[in-house]
Amino acid sequence: MTLTELKYIVAVAREKHFGKGAEACHVSQPTLSVAIKKLEEELQVKLFERNANEITVTPLGEEIIRQAQSVLEQAESIREIARRGKDPVAGALRLGIIYTIGPYLLPDLVRQTIAHTPQMPLMLQENFTVKLLEELRTGEIDCAILAEPFPDANLAIAPLYDEPFVAAVPSTHALASRSSITAEELKQETMLLLGNGHCFRDHVLEVCPEFARFSSATEGIRRSFEGSSLETIKHMVAAGMGVTLVPRLSVPKDAVATPTVAKSAAKSKAVAELSSHIKYLPFEGHVPTRRVVLAWRRSFTRYEAIAALRNAIYACELPGVTRLS
């Protein structure tokens, strides 16, 4: 048996599909199928049940694939030890990041890593929390920037920062004349939310008790619409379709609680025009907040790379957030 064959069976078990497994391994499906058949013959066991519409893992296959995953991780650890002997941070770092953090943190983070650790390029993967947790478990990525809470996956966690939420309202809205707002004042508004699958939607409903209570059928948010991204929702707010909450880092610079939106010369025309139609209001009293963390497998041995990434994140501007150590 070979590490390549083990990689193939882990991929098929994850994707529940031979074609998708082959695509994930960057080989043709016949190549993958032949290799898996060879491994099954060598072991004299059946790893997969091949049905018309789906692939399932046999009970014995489940145990073998768990061990295969462990072997692949150990093999990667050997490579990492060798790399660390030359340069502790040398080599690409596979970083996952959720959709509601990536667009706002990555531009500065990439600049910082290029400046301080050019020998450690970031291989970036944007995805939903649940998918990134799965990819951490299977070793497809090395670490991930996530927002709590998420299911305990026995990961190592380093808190990065606490990020407050800010209300975004149309500039023509009655609330736009305010310098701050309360969650209670939003309960009668048309609330724009991210679609299912985005953890930020759940975070908003979890950390804003008013929204969770008013989302029932009887006394709910009066109407709600969904968007596919925070930037799409901002355009909906600018168009006057409703209000929303956004994380602080997604707010244009100098746009919070000002009578008029400041126009930076470096700001693109499109961003400036969008910002002029939105007023961002901080919360009074209890401020809804999410905690952003860096997570990685406990078996991941590139400690210096994790430390370098954390230092790069702390070197970012991060306006309006509370940094954590």
Question: Mind explaining what this structure looks like?
Answer:
The chain is of the alpha/beta class and 325 residues long. The protein is built from 12 helices and 12 strands. The protein has helices spanning 3-15, 18-25, 29-43, 59-86, 102-116, 129-138, 183-186, 199-207, 209-213, 230-238, 269-275, 303-315; strands spanning 48-50, 55-57, 93-98, 122-127, 143-147, 155-170, 191-194, 224-227, 244-247, 278-281, 289-297, 322-323. The strands form 3 sheets. Strands 3, 4, 5, 6, 9, 10, 11 and 12 form an 8-stranded mixed β-sheet that branches. A two-stranded antiparallel ribbon has the order 1-2. A two-stranded parallel ribbon has the order 7-8. A hairpin with a 4-residue loop joins strand 1 (48-50) and strand 2 (55-57). It is globular and about 75 Å long. Mean pLDDT is 84; it is low at 213-223 and 258-267.
Write the layout of secondary structure elements.
Blueprint: H1 3-15, H2 18-25, H3 29-43, E1 48-50, E2 55-57, H4 59-86, E3 93-98, H5 102-116, E4 122-127, H6 129-138, E5 143-147, E6 155-170, H7 183-186, E7 191-194, H8 199-207, H9 209-213, E8 224-227, H10 230-238, E9 244-247, H11 269-275, E10 278-281, E11 289-297, H12 303-315, E12 322-323
Parallel strand pairs: 3-4, 3-5, 7-8
Antiparallel strand pairs: 1-2, 5-11, 6-9, 6-10, 6-11, 6-12
Helix pairs in contact: 1-2, 1-3, 1-4, 2-3, 5-12
Short description:
The model is unreliable at 213-223 and 258-267 (pLDDT under 50).
Which series of helices and strands comes N to C?
HHHEEHEHEHEEHEHHEHEHEEHE
Helix count, DSSP H or I runs of 4 or more residues: 12
Uncertain residue segments = 213-223, 258-267
Q: Please outline the major beta sheet.
A: 8 strands, mixed
Q: Count every beta strand, where a strand is a DSSP E run of 2 or more residues.
A: 12
Helix fraction, binned, reads: 40-55%
* Cα radius of gyration in angstroms: 23 Å
The oligomeric state is single chain
Q: Averaging pLDDT over every residue, what do you get?
A: 84
Beginning-to-end CA distance, first to last residue: 45 Å
Class derived from helix and strand content: alpha/beta
How much strand? 15-25%
Shape category: globular
